[in-house]
Design brief:
By secondary structure, this protein is α/β, with parallel strands linked by helices. The chain has 18 helices and 17 strands. It binds adenosine-5'-diphosphate-glucose.
Length: 482
């Protein structure tokens, strides 16, 4: 397949800037979007447009230049003012869209000022994309912070090739209806030629919202791809469940440093079964719910005392936003509470790590862990579930997965699915996983690994580009069939 030149657009560039000993440093960011897209741009080349933060400085530009010097893709940074960052990102994106799209409407703050800044910053992104791209490039915009960039670009370049991928869930009409700017956002999304969402559930919700709030839109097509035709244009809507670079995870899991680290971890845990949780600090990940369920599990199944340990890794995220600071305190309180109630000399039931850990270390922990416990209240996909299985090259280990993660439909055959709001159910799922025979673990893990291998990040990209080609061909023919 001939691939077009790619201009990828996301809120942040995949580099985070920190100051160490008074010196500014850039390091790779953690998070699902970066984990998924970085290998893709590495393989394909192109330009990554995104915010470099709120301080434009020669040092930051130099770090970005150096980072792209040996890389097949280049960075095109833009910079926001502190006021823009606060109202557009912390405000509209994370106090409105993020909770609403994760069905947590009571957490929304529908401040109209946020909307002004959302529009303003999306126009700023469109300016940056326009400067960084040519008319023939494929402009691929990512995620909920940038739902209006395509609309501005479409006005300026009517023939542009515009695609959008939403990494988070799309809510049902009852929930989406709460958004004061609901019709505008839907119209903005219809500026793209191709609109990708994570799962069939998100596709159905988006189409139901279009039908409710833009009644003039005509939806056609059966099966996977649907076509929305309106006075705004023609938009193909399809689910593309995002994935990981399966082979890269599996290979790294077999590497010498990882194997050595696994031995060290196991030497310290002896006959204790390790359960692992790995999350960005976010209330959608259900970390307090998991800790409470784990406390319940230890209270009701004392036979597992000194036999199980939960390694809970949390990567700091959205620091400075009050709700996230509160969540951090809540997680720390629960860890202390459970450890205080059950610890004994030589056994601490929760090993809590609050930092970003290097890839080798993360994979070693996945590999050493007997169970992965994922309890998202709602999640676009959840790449940790797929990373865990890819790292289990010994074909052991059990995945306990929230039924509200986007990964659940794909992984339901091998995983134990749980409702994260059901403390008893999660505890029972964990017990089932810990008691599972090696034969059943192997049988389930084989199925999980097979599923993830055949639908990895490269397949995801190819499916997306293939859909784009079909979109272009259909536009030439102007047929109303997707
Ligand atoms: P996230 O909400 O960030 O992504 P997720 O898909 O689980 O969620 O990805 C988290 C990533 O961060 C994983 O690649 C994981 O390895 C990494 N990570 C987590 N904790 C870490 C730590 N302490 N140290 C180092 N790395 C860590 C968003 C959506 C998801 C969707 C992705 C991709 O919210 O639903 O799956 O985008 O589309």
């Amino acid at each position: 397949m001939k691939l077009p030149k790619l201009v990828l657009v996301s809120n942040r560039l995949p580099i985070t800037f920190t100051t160490e000993d008074g010196k500014l440093k850039g390091q790779p960011s953690s998070g699902g979007l970066v984990s998924a897209l970085e290998p893709l741009l590495k393989a394909h080349g192109g330009i990554w447009v995104g915010s470099g933060g709120t301080e434009d400085s020669p040092q930051i530009r130099k770090i970005l230049e150096d980072a792209s010097a040996d890389s097949p893709y280049k960075y095109a940074p833009l910079f926001l003012t502190a006021e823009e960052q606060s109202n557009f990102y912390e405000g509209f994106s994370n106090e409105i869209v993020w909770p609403l799209f994760h069905d947590l409407q009571s957490r929304c703050n529908f401040d109209p000022r946020y909307w002004e800044f959302y529009e303003r910053v999306n126009r700023k992104f469109a300016d940056a994309v326009e400067q960084a791209s040519n008319a023939d490039d494929l402009i691929w915009i990512h995620d909920y912070q940038l739902m209006q960039v395509g609309k501005t670009l479409r006005c300026r370049r009517p023939g542009a090739r515009l695609a959008f991928f939403l990494h988070i869930p799309f809510p049902s009409p009852d929930i989406f209806a709460k958004l004061p700017w609901r019709q505008q956002i839907l119209k903005d999304l219809l500026a793209h030629d191709l609109l990708g969402v994570q799962t069939g559930r998100d596709q159905r919700n988006l189409i139901a919202c279009l039908r409710c709030f833009i009644p003039s839109v005509k939806i056609s097509g059966q099966g996977e791809s649907r076509l929305a035709v309106s006075e705004l244009g023609r938009t193909h809507i399809e689910a593309f469940p995002i994935s990981i670079d399966y082979c890269a995870f599996a290979d790294q899991s077999e590497s010498e440093p990882v194997l050595e680290r696994v031995q060290q971890i196991k030497a310290k845990t002896h006959d204790i079964q390790i359960t692992v949780g790995v999350d960005r600090l976010d209330y959608t990940k259900g970390i307090p719910e998991r800790l409470k369920a784990y406390g319940y599990f230890l209270r009701h199944y004392p036979e597992f005392h000194r036999k199980v340990e939960l390694i809970q890794i949390v990567v700091p995220s959205r620091e400075g936003i009050p709700r996230y600071d509160q969540l951090k305190r809540e997680v720390e309180r629960l860890v202390t509470h459970v450890n205080g109630e059950f610890s004994e000399p030589g056994w601490v039931p929760i090993n809590y790590i609050y930092r970003s850990v290097p890839r080798d270390e993360l994979i070693a922990i996945y590999r050493a862990a007997d169970v992965a416990l994922i309890t998202s209240l709602k999640d676009g996909m959840n790449l940790v579930a797929k990373e865990y299985c890819a790292a289990k090259t010994e074909v052991n280990g059990v995945l306990v997965l929230s039924e509200f993660a986007g990964a659940a439909p794909e992984l339901r055959v091998g995983a134990i699915l749980v409702n994260p709001n059901d403390e008893l159910g999660v505890a029972a799922g964990l017990k089932q996983a810990l008691e599972m025979t090696p034969e059943e673990r192997r049988r389930r893990m084989l199925r999980l690994r097979h599923q993830i291998r055949q639908a990895d990040i490269h397949t995801w990209r190819d499916r997306f580009f293939h859909a784009l080609e079909k979109t272009a061909a259909a536009a030439e023919g102007q047929s109303d069939e997707p």
